[in-house]
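chain below, 435 aa
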Amino acid sequence: MFLWHYLLTLLLLIAVRICQAERCEEFTDLDFSHAFIGTNLKIRLLLYTRENVTCGTLVSHTDLSSHPQFNLSRTTTFIIHGYRPTGSPPVWFKNFTELLLAKEDMNVIVVDWNYGAANVNYFKAVENTHLAANNLTAFIQIMEEHGASLSSIYLIGVSLGAHISGFIGANLNGSIGRITALDPAGPQFTGNPPEGRLDPTDAQFVDVLHTDIDALGFREPLGHIDFYANGGTDQPGCPKTIFSGSSYFKCDHQRSVKLFLNSLDRTCTSRAFPCSSYKDFLDGKCLNCERFGAAGCPVFGYDVTQWRDVLLSLGQTKTYFSTNKVCPYCMTSYRLEVMIWNQDSRWGYITAKLHGNGKEAVATIDHRATQFKKFTETKLFAQFDKDLQSVQKMSLKFSNGNVLKPKYKLRVLRIRLTHLERKRGLSVDMMFFSR
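prediction:
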């Protein structure tokens, strides 16, 4: 009987230890009542590796030896969220960790500072960014004491998290490897000196995406390379009126995360072009990529480090790219050259369609009216919603944009279409396209 009790006790102890080992820690789930009352800062670090892709392990801030799966010889990527006015967990972080781990064998640490970010008082959340940065700085210093290289530290910050990343980097004298900032917060940071916000000296390499510069995001460049998706303002597919509810306020801001996730799963790539303004970009004045060598203009997202050396030599680079309304967000860029034989000049807008293998790609060039003159080649920048590997037919639609004006036809003498990445040209001579 004594032996039976001993075995039973032993089995129960083993079962408890197995359950403890397999326990998955979840991101803190608060509600609006917490945000309304206000929350004090508390930071939890959830570790994910290829050994536990979907099961977070709560990491001790001081005892790293208790986490044998935390291999400090690997890259360690911290994902730092932003302001959480409702207290709910970010819906994207699990997808984020899974895609990062599929990309590289690394440590992914989700920084859960929901206690501190969940507060209707935005100014309090901003105040907590400095405290959060100091806490995380101390943790990274402990990692360094245990053998981690600061060059192997990668911080991905969203909104307020972008500036937390900057403060951490500044605390460590810019020695960490990389910071990716996804639509850094603008309110309470715009106009701050470099020590009061993210700046290029905060890491060895800083790349920044802007998607909401006219509201919640930061307008000016902050990194070695700054990407402005769709000019950095209104994102395609996002609500245009306040009647859409909360999505009207946050859709543009949150698009930054979706675009970065799109870059991780590599369904397509977004080539970004250096330019001084979005208008010049749309006008096709910024398509020269020679300064970047054989690799061409940088691709937005995780893999932009391929251009790191040349970008560091250039100082700060401001780039633009366009996206679709839904995933996959990437568009395909062509140079479209049109020559007409109309006697009189024509002003209007072009919609181009490519056809091939039963598929269709569309590019609408309507940001401004274009002038077409007889026997004069008009160069346009056409961004198609798909990348057709084989183009069998092309059609154009010309419109003057005003139903009250006479209906004109554009008599096309020649069209030349050149893929800006594959450098393959398609020319069509002596074709006629009506309005």
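Residues 1-20, 428-435 have pLDDT under 50 and may be disordered. The two ends are 95 Å apart (CA to CA).
thats it, cya
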